[in-house]
Amino acid sequence: MAHGSSDPRAAASTRALARAVAAQRPGLDVRTSFLDHAGPRPDTVLFDMQRLGHRSAAVVPLLLTSAFHGRVDLPGVIERAYAAGLTMRVRVTDVLGPVGGLLEPHLIAALRRQLPAVDADGVVMIAAGTRDDLARHTVDLAAAELGRSLGLPCRAAFASGSPVTGAVAVSALRSQGCSRIAISSYFLAPGKLHEAAVASAVSAGALEPAAPPLGRALDLARLVVARIGRVSPETVDLAA
Questions:
Q1: Model confidence over 159-173: pLDDT tens digits?
Q2: If you placed Cys at 34, which of 38, 48, 111, 197 could pair as Cys (CB 3.0 to 4.6 Å)?
Q3: What average pLDDT does this structure show over 186-214?
Q4: Of 215, 219, 197, 210, which Cα lies nearest the Cα of 120?
């Protein structure tokens, strides 16, 4: 389940990720759904699966933070589906980003592999942004872990919901002595917010090209498979 975007590239990226997940788990019925813009909606897909005879499904929120869409929108959609007659067992997994302060190794691997091959001495990790302080904190955690894995200073920057824009983060890295700053993309799909965040970082001197969004990275498909197969304290079972 992705949030959805008016940019058709985002839906194409989500569908490519679904195909990669299906290739990792032969025999698993993997489908895409979207909360907004593109279709189909999660409840429509669940009813289709139920009509085909499926008795249970895992819904993986393709979100990098546990903000409003994951905590409120998605559970609300599924609860309304139950009220409308859905009977199959539905489990909503954790989001793809940090949970309980911990990052999946697959996520760090995806961020590392997507980085452009530039001689960098610092990294700015651009993200969509949110007004949720706790959700933004998990992005900062991801940036810190990426920096540790690379052995380089790394700062998070946001396209919205925070005064820490790409330009602000690049300037902060420059004040630490960095002069060749690569752009890591903490986005799942391309779109206007990603382009705006890249432009902001580049305007302050960050190196081009920027890393592409993560949606087509094989490591991300592996992360989705891991989420499907794991029940954690954060997992919500909406049939319980």
A1: 999 999 999 999 999
A2: 38
A3: 96
A4: 210
